[in-house]
């Protein structure tokens, strides 16, 4: 479980990106942060893996304040997927997926074996393994991004608009794949999007944020739709 306790982030120029946010992301569920551009979604996500620290308030992972966990250890348990998959252009797909296992010092064969297994998991043809990112479609690259984030089997997955840059048909299939995958893996997922339909489709719980970083609603989709 991830707990935000009165979290505020004020940037150096005075912008309040996140304003007194308190909520809980239950273990094994998908919580979606949704709202217009500038409402503090990315800032909230980056505070979970300590790319940014709150100005005040605190974030707990299970019972522990994340500031008590050193960032490399924290990040080992957190997969991160961004909008443009952010793949290394000069590395083969298999090696992109195995990035974290290599960093963790797994031997090459084991790391690549894990990568091949993940390619299957996320619905990528193993024939893609030896290709380079530019040889893949946008949707395929996002699948690689998801596989890479899952490589070290982190319990937490942060996803920042992962499907926003692909066309609607591909987006719908990526959403289905994520739900299928989550049915097997039961990760604790924080998913950020500006698309309310996507939030309702994917979220076990949805946090609606307003510009200024205030939480407007926090509910499951059926409740949200009737409010
Ligand atoms: P979202 O992901 O919902 O689009 P962000 O978290 O990126 O929102 O940004 C929230 C607010 O904080 C916006 O007003 C944005 O301009 C501002 N902001 C983001 N990063 C910085 C920064 N490094 N310095 C100053 N303001 C920032
Ligand atoms: P290297 O970088 O060591 O020269 P290769 O070019 O032989 O490696 O391939 C890189 C990795 O990608 C291999 O470990 C292999 O598992 C995988 N791979 C490459 N092409 C395919 C393919 N067509 N089908 C399955 N796996 C492949």
Automatic annotation (TrEMBL):
GO molecular function: ATP binding
Alphabetic keyword roster: ATP-binding, Nucleotide-binding, Transport
Keyword Aminoacyl-tRNA synthetase: no
Start and end residues of each ABC transporter domain: 2-227
Entry annotated with the keyword Transport: yes
Family that this chain belongs to: Belongs to the ABC transporter superfamily.
Protein name (database record): ABC transporter ATP-binding protein
Lineage of source species: Bacteria, Bacillati, Actinomycetota, Actinomycetes, Streptosporangiales
Part of the full-length chain shown: 1 to 227 of 353
């Amino acid at each position: 479980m991830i707990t935000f306790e009165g979290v505020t982030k004020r940037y150096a120029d005075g912008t309040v990106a996140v304003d007194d946010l308190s909520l809980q992301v239950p273990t094994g569920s998908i919580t979606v942060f949704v709202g217009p551009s500038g409402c503090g979604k990315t800032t909230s996500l980056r505070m979970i893996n300590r790319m940014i620290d709150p100005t005040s308030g605190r974030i707990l992972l299970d019972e522990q304040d994340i500031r008590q966990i050193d960032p490399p250890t924290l990040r080992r348990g957190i997969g991160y997927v961004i909008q443009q998959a952010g793949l290394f252009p000069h590395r083969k797909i298999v090696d992109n997926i195995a990035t974290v296992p290599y960093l963790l010092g797994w031997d090459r064969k084991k790391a690549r074996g894990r990568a091949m297994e993940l390619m299957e998991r996320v619905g990528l043809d193993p024939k893609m393994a030896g290709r380079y990112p530019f040889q893949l479609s946008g949707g395929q690259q996002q699948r690689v991004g998801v596989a890479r984030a899952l490589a070290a089997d982190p319990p937490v997955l942060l996803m920042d608009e992962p499907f926003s840059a692909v066309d609607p048909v591909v987006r719908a299939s990526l959403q289905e794949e994520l739900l299928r995958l989550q049915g097997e893996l039961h990760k604790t997922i924080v998913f950020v999007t500006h698309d309310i339909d996507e939030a309702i489709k994917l979220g076990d719980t949805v946090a609606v944020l307003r510009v200024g970083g205030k939480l407007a609603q926090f509910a499951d989709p059926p409740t949200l739709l009737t409010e």
